[in-house]
Amino acid sequence: MNLPPTPPAPAESRGTRAALVFALTAERLSIWYEHGRWPTEAQGATLAADWLGRTRRSLPLADRRLLSERSDGLARRIAASLSREAGLYTAHEMMEALDPNYESELSRSLMDECARLVAND
């Protein structure tokens, strides 16, 4: 039996917002370790819009900026708490975990942290 495809969850859902914080954190860490600089708030909001657009979702600019800010804080805490080598590994694991078929304990624990960050939205 062929079932119709499941529509994407609304961008306002906690799961989508947590996934967005996770994806933005992964991008921020990758940029930090590759270029030695942190993306600006505006760049983060643009990354959020791009990520949402790939799944045909959207959020108001204020929400994208808030989630960008949360991802920035998390990325900086991760980078400050790890050696460069461990940070590179973490960024790589997070980028790999953007593929829904990739599973890792590290990524699951970081996704849990992202869910906590958006729990009160």
Task: Name its key features.
121 residues; mainly alpha; 5 helices; 0% strand; globular
Give a description of the structure.
The protein is mainly alpha-helical and 121 residues long. The chain has one domain. It contains 5 helices and no strands. Helix 1 crosses helix 4 and helix 2 crosses helix 3. The mean pLDDT is 88.
Strand and helix map with partners:
Layout: H1 14-35, H2 41-54, H3 61-81, H4 84-97, H5 105-118
Helix pairs in contact: 1-2, 1-3, 1-4, 1-5, 2-3
Distance between the termini: 38 Å
Structural class: mainly alpha
Q: Helical proportion? A: over 70%
Poorly predicted parts? none
Q: Tally the helices: what do you get?
A: 5
Q: Return the string of H and E elements.
A: HHHHH
**β-strand amount:** under 5%
Biggest sheet: strands, sense, closure? none
Domain unit count: 1
How big is the Rg?
14 Å
Average predicted local confidence, pLDDT: 88
Number of strand segments = 0
> What shape does the CA trace take?
globular
